[in-house]
Amino acid sequence: MTKTEHRRCPLVLAVLLSLVIDFSDTQLVINVRNQGGDVVQENIFANVTHDTVSLEFQRSDGTLITQVIDFRNEVQILKALILGEEERGQSQYQVVCMIFHFDKNSFISSDAMSKLRQKNPSTIRTPEEDLGRTNYTMDYSVVLPHSGLISPHISELCAEAGEATYTRHADLVLWAASQGIPETTYLTALKSFPSSVNHFLSNSVEDEVRPAVPVCTNMKKMRSPCRCHLELCIGWYPCGLKYCKGKGQSKNSVMTYRCGIKTCRKCHLFAYYVAQKQQCLWDE
After folding, report:
1. Parallel, antiparallel, or unpaired for β 94-101 and 75-82?
2. N or C: which end of the chain has fewer CB atoms below 10 A?
3. pLDDT at 212
């Protein structure tokens, strides 16, 4: 057990276990070896009716990660339930949700996912390709009662992250284009950070040069606002289908058929505003 794990509050861990999503109908349970050498168990479920894929696992530090891919709206939701550190006065957990656009070709479809089976469920798996890390600077917090404008799955999944659900302007542009609607349609679902530029309502030069809040790493006062960083990695997921060529029915003909999946690892590093450093103790 690591030093970080010793600091986690046992009472909060008990609460966490009662909050784990019910995966009684889980399509796949995958044992994955992460980069630190630990083996984590991923639960993956495909819902063809809603056209979604959900993935959940618990990191070795106790953080519970949930990923939901909403194919219809091209939305990816990453939720982190982070345990408090008892030695630093945190007796409760906190929940953070990151909402961003994803390319439909970066994950296999919900229909294809629902048809996957494992021959050896106990096998410890590693991804075929590491896609590295993408950095995100979040521009807005999301107003949950109106979050259905982005995806109908946000309000329920992120119910405990009412003040800690975030998205970016760059993603809104992509969603507006794919849905064929004006960007301003999303206005009621967004709340600007105190130091961020309001992309919709202001073109003021003064706003554009307003100094950014300092990063939490450099802050000493626990009650001061700062810019937090949170890295969330998905150690193994089906990122594509493999196709093989075989002999066709007629002479000299060739047919292409689906013959497996390609698996990937992907990390996301998020920068976002918090009202006080106490909400970002890991960023040190």
Report:
1. antiparallel
2. N
3. 67
